[in-house]
Design a protein that fits this description.
This protein has about 425 residues and is of the alpha/beta class. It folds into two domains: about 140 residues, FAD/NAD(P)-binding domain; about 220 residues, FAD/NAD(P)-binding domain (3-Layer(bba) Sandwich). A hairpin with a 2-residue loop joins strand 21 and strand 22. Helix 5 packs antiparallel against helix 6. The longest helix is centred in the middle third of the chain and has 21 residues. It starts with a strand and ends in a 7-residue tail after the last helix. The model has no long low-confidence stretch (mean pLDDT about 95). The chain binds flavin-adenine dinucleotide. Flavin-adenine dinucleotide binds next to helix 1, strand 2 and helix 10.
């Protein structure tokens, strides 16, 4: 029996497993196994809209069981704790798994760039759980600010800092502003628009690095017009319980810091004794193989193609992961069927960035769109990319209802005690 194992059920891993299934599914001598620590595929581009209560969390995921139906591949929901490439063995929390061919598609993790306190004092936005926790925490902060009489503490509670002016940071910032303008100031009588401060911090000269400069400029102007502070040339040098230090100089006090700056390799890759590229990503050859172990492939956010050219993009974005998943799977089929391997060549066709309700900037193959038309396109493309009619309808309905009815501010899980209130009362900041 030839054992093919795919690790990770994100964009890259799912594409790999479905390609393998379509090419090898009928063969009796091949066993395909997918292992992932989550039993679903997450549509990450819509995570900011979970934070702003625009759409429901379960509407942007598709369970593996639904995708699998009568397909043959096995699915194991478990965490990979280690990979022994010499022995072709994968260690899981609940056991071990051997393989003949392997696709490592376990994605990346937030890159804190060794900034002291960043990991422990900021919120990340990578997983569904991150988005739900962040949403609850923001709403809890608003609940406290609503009845806070001390103006300094209230300002602190209503200051939201987003670190990282990439597309995730920009989309989250505009979603947050929409939530505040469309819902909070109407329903929280103790909060006025002027009390709220949203700031986007970016280390470089401009936000949206890598995006067409004209579109990036347009996005910046839109953010500023909407009352968002865009602070470029602002490097966060330290994070504490009470806020962040910028450029080793001044401190911004705040209740919430959200870290969206950067992606690094999954910590599991750190233990692999193979060549690594920038930010610990596994270095792969033109065929997406790990050079030292040609039966092992690495793709997506966790990998980087050696001697990258624009035609061999390793950008940490979904289309790259999907394309790499397809090529890695095809190359495994080629190896099993003794055919030559296929080279990975892919240039992403563009970028779509939402600027909140009714506005977006888009560049598809050099064709640029801004404003309402771009926003309609953004919605249409994301709806089409969502897998499954049920999910498409659910998200479309969420969007429609969100334009007619108010959003909601129910806190789903017990949040941590408000640390600003805890500090004021001199008590420990622990769970209720
Ligand atoms: C908030 C946000 C917004 C984004 N917006 C866009 C966008 O608009 N457009 C775009 O192109 N890209 C976007 N991206 C980037 C895109 O999501 C990634 O580039 C893409 O998901 C990478 O695919 P991947 O398969 O490498 O990893 P992932 O999709 O991250 O999948 C990794 C998989 O591995 C699993 N896994 C991780 N560790 C383990 C372990 N130890 N054991 C078992 N399983 C494990 C995970 O559960 C997951 O199933 C966004 C990302 C985020 C976080």
């Amino acid at each position: 029996m030839i054992k093919v194992v795919v690790l990770g059920s994100g964009f890259g891993g799912m594409e790999a497993v479905l390609t393998l299934e379509s090419r090898l599914g009928k063969r009796k001598d091949v066993e395909i196994t997918l292992v992932s620590n989550q039993n679903y595929t997450l549509f990450t581009p819509l995570l900011p809209q979970i934070v702003s209560s625009y759409i429901e969390p379960r509407h942007i995921i598709q369970t593996i069981r639904d995708i699998r139906r009568d397909k043959k591949f096995r699915f194991i929901r478990d965490s990979v704790t280690g990979i022994d490439l010499d022995r072709k063995l994968i260690r899981l929390s609940e056991g071990e798994l051997s393989c003949d061919y392997l696709v490592i598609a376990i994605g990346g993790t937030t890159n804190y760039f060794n900034v002291p306190g960043a990991e422990s004092h900021t919120f990340a936005l990578k997983t569904l759980q991150d988005s739900a926790e962040l949403r609850d925490h923001i709403i809890d902060m608003l609940e406290h600010a609503d009845h806070e009489h001390d103006i300094t503490l209230k300002n602190e509670m209503l200051t939201f800092l987003i670190v990282g002016g990439g597309y995730t940071g920009v989309e989250l910032t505009t979603e947050l502003r929409d939530f505040i303008c469309r819902y909070v100031i109407k329903n929280y009588k103790g909060i006025r628009l002027n009390d709220v401060r949203i700031a986007l911090l970016e280390v470089s000269r401009e936000i949206l690095e890598g995006v067409d400069p004209e579109l990036a400029k347009r996005a910046r102007a839109k953010l500023q017009k909407g009352g968002i502070e865009v602070r470029t040339d602002s490097k966060v040098t330290k994070c504490t319980e009470n806020g962040v230090e910028i450029n080793n100089q001044y401190i911004l006090r705040t209740g919430i810091v959200i870290w969206t700056a950067g992606v690094r390799a999954n910590p599991i890759s750190d233990s692999l004794t193979v060549r690594k590229g920038k930010f610990g990503r596994i270095l792969v050859n033109d065929y997406l193989q790990i050079q030292e172990f040609p039966e092992a492939y690495a793709i997506g956010d966790n990998a980087i193609v050696d001697r990258e050219t624009p035609a061999k993009s390793s950008q940490p974005i979904a289309p790259v992961a999907i394309h790499q998943g397809r090529i890695a799977a095809r190359n495994i089929v080629n190896s099993i069927e003794n055919r030559p391997l296929e080279k990975y060549l892919f240039t992403p066709s563009g970028m779509l960035i939402s600027l909140g309700m009714n506005d977006a900037v888009i560049n598809i193959k050099g064709f640029k769109f801004v404003g309402f038309i771009a926003w309609l396109l953004w919605n249409a493309v994301h709806l089409l990319k969502l897998v499954g009619l049920k999910k498409q309808l659910q998200v479309a309905l969420d969007w429609s209802l969100g334009s007619i009815f108010p959003r909601d501010s129910a806190i789903i899980r017990f949040p941590q005690r408000c640390r600003i209130c805890a500090r004021k009362r001199g008590v420990e900041n622990k769970k209720y």
